[in-house]
Description:
The chain is globular. α1 packs antiparallel against α2, α2 runs antiparallel to α5 and α6 packs across α7. The protein is 52% helix and 17% strand. The strands form 2 sheets. Strands 2-3-1-4-7 form a 5-stranded mixed beta sheet. A two-stranded antiparallel sheet has the order 5-6. The mean pLDDT is 91. A hairpin with a 3-residue loop joins β2 and β3. It is an alpha+beta fold. The protein is built from 8 helices and 7 strands, in the order βαββαβββαβααααα.
Amino acid sequence: MGWSAVITGDLVRSSKMAPDRYNLILQQLEQTLATLSSNHTDFSIYRGDGFQLYLPNPEQSLTAALLIRLNLISHDADCRLSIGLGNIDCKRSQISMSTGEAFTLSGRSLEALKDVYWSLQLPQSLSVDWQLLLRFADVLLQQMTARQAQVLYGYFTGDYPSHQHLADQMQTSRANITQLLNQAHYTLFQDLLSQFKRFLGEQGKL
């Protein structure tokens, strides 16, 4: 049986947000989760600032995690999240009631997160190389500005459009888009996502 993916997360410092801003961030989060899911029962927001997303294709999981964070960062917010990969025992219409390896790994790992805002958990131990890659990527994300995140989000959701096309969409110059993408280290994130797909292919669980 192939793996599935579960992303479990919560908003960072949500208790310090003003009510109007909190509602805006939740709306952005819900829209992103709905866009990433194939069914409205595949995601949920709970306890006010917690969320969970089920992805039947694990290859999409790191991209989904990145898009969730980029969209929040583009609104001057962020989240902690944990990606769990593994088998699913029972997928229920209420995702919080579902069970399986991926759900367990994702939930447990989130509780252990502190300074690093994301993690990846597999049934077997994750290599030191991948742990370091994710930590480096997390540093870049935590240092990213809202505008850089907005442009990078548009780049990945637009399936790597030309800089000019992205500039036309965002009503700015191509030079500005190129500068923002370079500042956001877009080629590093693009390479990270490509390497992740190759990594999963080597695991034979796609």
